[in-house]
């Protein structure tokens, strides 16, 4: 099952509508993904022709290897996608960062790359403290501040 989903970067200058989005996404634990995204990169493989992007002027593409590029929002820094640029590579897809999607309900992790590079820090401790949104805001946000969910311009 696949469907149309929307998403945007942290500042909202780059937005997208993706059609035929698969329910499964992948994680990559390679060193480049870790340093680029801050941890493992969770990517949703969208056929490039099924992707409508707005805010093109704010997208910074970097050719990070001979065969692939990574794109970020140049205003807020959000990682946007990983894409194989090798001309012969099929299918043509954009691996969109999972965190950009407005709604990920029903989506599940389907595969992992570079598992031998996975950091043990991703094994979540069983006795960890867990804070809800309200509990976290109570700890860090000024009382009268409105919560920034990333939906503001
Ligand atoms: Zn942005
Ligand atoms: Zn990677």
UniProtKB/TrEMBL annotation:
Pfam families (UniProt xref): GFA (PF04828)
Entry keyword Metal-binding: yes
SUPFAM superfamilies the record matches: Mss4-like
Annotated CENP-V/GFA domain residues: 5-127
Recorded superkingdom: Bacteria
UniProt keyword list: Lyase, Metal-binding, Zinc
Keyword Protein transport: no
Family: Belongs to the Gfa family.
Name of the protein in its database record: GFA family protein
Organism: Aliisedimentitalea scapharcae
């Amino acid at each position: 099952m696949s469907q149309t989903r929307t998403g945007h970067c942290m500042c909202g200058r780059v937005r997208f509508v993706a059609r035929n989005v698969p329910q499964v996404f992948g994680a990559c634990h390679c060193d480049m993904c870790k340093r680029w995204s801050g941890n493992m990169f969770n990517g949703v493989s969208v056929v490039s022709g099924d992707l409508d992007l707005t805010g093109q002027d704010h997208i910074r593409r970097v050719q990070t290897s001979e065969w692939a590029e990574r794109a970020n929002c140049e205003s807020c820094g959000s990682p946007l996608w990983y894409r194989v640029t090798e001309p012969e590579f099929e299918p043509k897809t954009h691996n969109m960062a999972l965190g950009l999607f407005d709604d990920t309900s029903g989506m599940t992790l389907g595969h992992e790359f570079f598992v031998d590079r996975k950091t043990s820090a991703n094994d979540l401790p069983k006795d960890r403290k867990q804070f809800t949104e309200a509990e976290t805001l109570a700890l860090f946000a000024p009382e009268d501040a409105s919560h920034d969910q990333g939906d503001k311009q």
